[in-house]
Structure formats: C-alpha cells, structure tokens
Amino acid sequence: MAAGAAAAAAAFLFILLSLTTPSLALTCNPQPSFPNKRTYSSCTALPHLNATLHFTFDPANSSLSLAFSAAPPSSPGGGGWVAWAINPTSTGMIGAQALMALKSSAGSVVAKTFNISSYHSIAESKLSFDVWDLSADEASRAMRLFASVKVPAGSRSLNQVWQVGGAVDGTRPKIHDMADANKDAKATLVLAAAESGIGGSTAVSPAPAPASGVSRVGEASAAATAFLALGLVFLGSSYFGLY
Prior knowledge:
Blueprint: H1 2-20, E1 42-45, E2 52-58, E3 63-70, E4 80-86, E5 97-103, E6 109-118, E7 121-124, E8 131-139, E9 142-150, E10 157-165, E11 168-169, E12 172-173, H2 180-183, E13 186-190, H3 191-195, E14 204-206, H4 210-239
Antiparallel strand pairs: 1-2, 2-3, 3-9, 4-5, 4-10, 5-6, 6-7, 8-9, 10-13, 11-12, 13-14
Helix pairs in contact: 1-4
C-alpha cells in the first residue's frame, strides 16, 4: 500500500514539475557551429517565423553580442532578407533600429543597418546605438546575422522585432508578407535572465510591456516552487503511510 502510494506521489510530482515550469521548456537546439568560433551564453527560440537568437549580455559594459538566424521565404529570384531589430521607443516595427542580412539573386550575402521610421520609409543609416562586428552569412538555407550592440546602462529588457522577406532590390529589402506570423514577430527580450547566468534558454515574453514579461517569469517561478513544496509534502506523507 505504502509503495503504491509513494509511486503515485512521485508520478504526481513529475506532472506538477512538467506543468509549472514552462520557462525551463524554452530550449534551443544544440548551439550550432558559428564562424570564428563564436559562442553565446544564452539562446531563445523566438515564437514566430522559425527564428532563433543566441546572445551574450555583458552588464559591465552594457553590450549585447548576438547571432540571429532565420530562413527567408523561397522566391523565384533566389534572393531574400532577414532582420533583427531593437525598438528603443515602442514595441512594433515603427521606430525599430534594424540589423539586416540581405541576399541578392547572385547569391552574395551582406549585412547592413536600417532605420525604420515608417511603413514606407526604410533608410540605410547608422543606428541610434553603437554597432560593431556586424556580419552575415548563410547556412542550411538560414541567413545569420552577427553583431555586438550597445544597450542603455542598467537595461533589464529590450523591445525586439524580427522579420523575413523573400526579395531584395539591389541591397534594399522589398516588402515582407503580412501573415499573422509576420505581424506578431515581436517580443520582450529579458536580459536579466542572461545576466543571472541562466544558460540554455532565456525568458521571452510577447510584446508589449517589458515589465509584464519579468512579472510572468517571476510568477511562474513562484508557482513552480509552491507546487514543488506541495508535491514533496505529499510524497513524504505517502512514504510514511500518512495517506
């Protein structure tokens, strides 16, 4: 009887852990081989467009080193583009400061920066923050962006936007699809998770509010702790024959 109750309690505890720790399930694939032996401390599988962000946040000098990867839609001309951006003032595309990898129909891939001031104005320019070590390549149909950027001192989160498109005009992106996945390709990147040394996965919450992303992570953690304690009590009670 006691053995059966203990087994049931263990199963119950396992289910609780599976249901109450969603942030632990946000994992990336094993870190791919990046050029120049680049490595990153954190990664996140972004929720739309099959995109992935690997990054390292250094709070000491307020810098973010990143590798963004996504596959552009197939197009007859063979070109395409992918972009990852920070929006310092809002949560959507307007005002975003974008890093972009563009592939011409000839097959060459280049990396550029664009200021997206409106839906009809995308200008190649310097961004509102420092960018260095910017480069791009292509691997297994995915286009990859590499860069380091300066973020405001004391930042705990960023409004990030990402996008993919199937055509370019020279070295300028053409309009992307307007499917729901394209419209929803934005989220809050929580830098605090990387700073605290959490490896493998990183909390990402849907836009708009950075604060809500942090609170959801905290709420999930608190709920997991509470249910874990309850499960341990039940397991111990079952072992000693109290149930």
